[in-house]
Amino acid sequence: MDREIGRPDWLFGNQPYDTNPSCPGEYVVSCDGLLTLMENGVKKKTFNTGFTSHLLLNFSKSGKVYCFAHSAIQVSTLISVNILDGKVEILRKSQQVDIDEGYFSKFTEICYNTTDGEKSYANYYKPTNKDYEGPDDELPPLLVKAHGGPTSSATTSLQLPIQYFTSRGFAVLDVSYRGSTGYGREYRLKLADKWGIYDVDDCCAAAQHLADNKLVDKNKLCIDGGSAGGYTTLACLAFKDVFKAGASHYGVADLELLAKDTHKFESRYLDNLIGVYPQQRDIYIQRSPIHNVDGFNSPIIFFQGTEDKVVPPNQAQMMFDSVEKKGIPCSLVMFEGEQHGFRKSENIQTALDGELYFYSKILKFNADLPDGISDKISISNYV
Question: For residue 243, is pLDDT > 80?
């Protein structure tokens, strides 16, 4: 099987295959959205479970394979698959989502041209809402999402934040820029020394690809991301002139500070992605948005936790102060007690509503939003 099936081992037990304890040489593997039974490298049987991703595989002596499965419109679900008859049994869902599928957008994977004569990939979600259709004479706005990691990938699971935007008229493009996992070793290693370059190039090229094909409005291109994806968002706005607005969720603004203060698990991680620190400190400075605020020309909103130890809140504050000083519309939302990633439901909701509210003001469209959101989101330099 000539496929990449592994993922970064950021979590224990993340196994994409497992062997049959009752039959040496036989194993089951998750690949291309399917479960496949193999024996000594030869494909025996493929199971279509109705899901598009399968994680934490466990092959039992009973002949059943247990795993967590999900898809773009289904939550993570514990299932069992009988390898003899292919019967799939749903054992337990991670949560109950009572949303009509008419509000869900199913993605299409696209491949597009990017810099250096190469290709990149993304999951494209059309605006979808069974109750509404967009005007015939208008193209939808686009939200490009930059994943974290940065060596992770765009997910194929149900992402309610994505569906939040697609059900409200946005097209969404979840980019697996060069260096992402899932497209082979050569592709995965392309981010070596190129973080802040290839991820930025590929997010911009993805947006331009949809605009050139008349699928989205070229004047309504937005981008967001969290953590490493927040860095890519900030870098796109600092070094390129493609996006009209952006949202940084606890994004990395200072690469040097990240190299100095990162946790043990990721120590020296940036040596491969950027360069050996401190010997190549100049590259860290060159690629840090916090040192390149002069390049910002587009409005941005920052969402930040006050107790974030990975990306200290002063980075967001400094970025906001600098952008505000330039006279660019911007906003800073600090969530008291939150860390690197928001946990409280009310803050998660405010971040979603606040981002949509910000775009609605910048791009000049009406949005159906909860009462009081304008009291939580103050936009400086906005007229």
Answer: yes
Q: Positive or negative CA dihedral for 329, 335, 338, 343? A: negative
Nearest to 269 by CA among 149, 378, 95: 149
166 and 146 Cβ atoms separated by less than 8 Å: no
9 pLDDT exceeds 90? no
Asked if residues 2 and 179 have their Cβ atoms less than 8 Å apart, the reply is: no
Question: In this structure, what DSSP letter does residue 225 have?
Answer: E
Question: From residue 262, how far is each of 226, 255, 268 by CA, in Å?
Answer: 16, 10, 9
Omega before 278 cis (within 30°)?
A: yes
- Residue 121: strand pairing partners: 111, 176
| φ/ψ of residue 62, rounded to 5 | -75, -10
Residues in CB range of 362: below 8 A, 6 or more apart: 244, 245, 299, 329, 382
What is the three-class DSSP state of 232? helix
State the average pLDDT for the chain: 92
